[in-house]
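Progress report, Aim 2. The chain analyzed during this reporting quarter is listed below.
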Amino acid sequence: MQYLVGIDVSTTAVKAILIDARGSVIGSASTPLSLAIPRPGWSEQDPADWWNATVASIRALLDRSRVKPESIVSLGLTGQMHGAVFLDAHGKIIRPAILWNDARSAAQCAEIMHLVGEDRLRDTTGNPALVGFQAPKILWLREHEPDNYAKLRHVLLSKDYIRYRLSGEFATDASDAAGTLLLDLAKRDWSDEVLSRLSISRGWLPDVYEGPEVTGHLSSEAARTTGLREETAIVAGAGDNAAAAIGCGVIHEGTGLLSLGTSGVIFAPTDKLRIDPSGALHAFCHAIPRAYHLMGVILSAGGSLRWARDVLFGDGLNRSELDDYDSFIEPAKHIPPGADGLFFLPYLAGERTPHMDPAARGAWIGLSLAHRREHLIRAVLEGVAFALRDAWERMTALGVAPSALRIVGGGAKSAAWREIIAAVLDIPLQQLAVDNGAAFGAALLAGVGAGTYADVDEAVAQTVRLSGDQEEPVGEFVEEYESIYRKYVSLYPALKESGIWEET
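Predicted structure tokens for the chain:
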């Protein structure tokens, strides 16, 4: 029996998963990570912690599964996108990695738009300049830490630093590279024009591969450290959203994924490159050769619900009750659509799609003496659904309209929330038999690279299964939410124009 490993370097933990060729999960292990916030708006991690957590997770995986390392034929990588790992000429870490949710580089984003041109940047890289992306972080280092910048010889993404430690190779994949703001999407390689205009050396960047391609093999040193077999193949892998999509079987146009975690993501593959002229939707390479995807991201989905839980219930519930979301969502099920005139804007951490506004803030609007806690919760559930609708509307306007969305993430466990979202988006929501996350998709890519599967289509066909449960939009709710949503979309521009967010 051949086995495959997927490694996911997320912001909160490094997860390792071991599967067989049928897609059965033989074992998994996770090692938590801590986040550093040295200043307000900054977000950093030490890449050395990623490596130590990777080693710990792999060793725990091998110990628990009792699978012999000789039976593991390939390893795939995924992880948090957009961050920047800065290395010197000897491959040593120069400073802590600046992460995807770091907001320090607004001035550098404006500089990029000026140097490249807004239209040219979008047409080449598929996206406007946003603080989350890697390119502005490089410019920030140049301006604010010139001594560190002088040492710079390599810039990597999170999973690709782990690749370097495993194999000694500097490599990435097209889906993750698309989130740097330095990739020419049509060529699926670095843009010499953008690099030149930003004065960034192409030699600092890793080679770009397609997701299923082998980028190198496990070194003898890494084999001794991890317990894996020397020369185990290492496959390019994918950024976390593309890997999760592969793990859910969302690989061709006509399919779609809704991830309802801390953030909310609508992901739709496209068979050809489609770029949103407004820049509201992200356009990236998929981890499948010649394929692309559009993605809308709202920053606080499950994060909004968790915040509301803590604010409204935190003092009255013990830890086990706090972790049982159904206990406080249940009363909200009996509140009618529209929460009796109450709206919630889920912009607790600013917003990406479609507003691209880090200054936006959350709000309950329409409060009255008649409203109770269950109204507040119902408004949160609906507000997140409306924010997802904002992204969905832009996606369908570009002609990308999946017939159903596969829903994953912690929020997908709530039947009440699924019912609301299905009605607001007017689309069926399909559940997976097992939601194994991005690491599972990375393991499938590893299998394609090793020849276990002929291609990603075969990998998905052999391993991904739907549960059979499908949330259908309820007709009467679809009609009600249509009129309520039209009121919701007027709220952001009204508050933006008022100037209240800038003042706070």
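The first strand starts at residue 3 and ends at 9. The longest helix spans residues 373-397. These observations will guide the mutagenesis work planned for the next reporting period.
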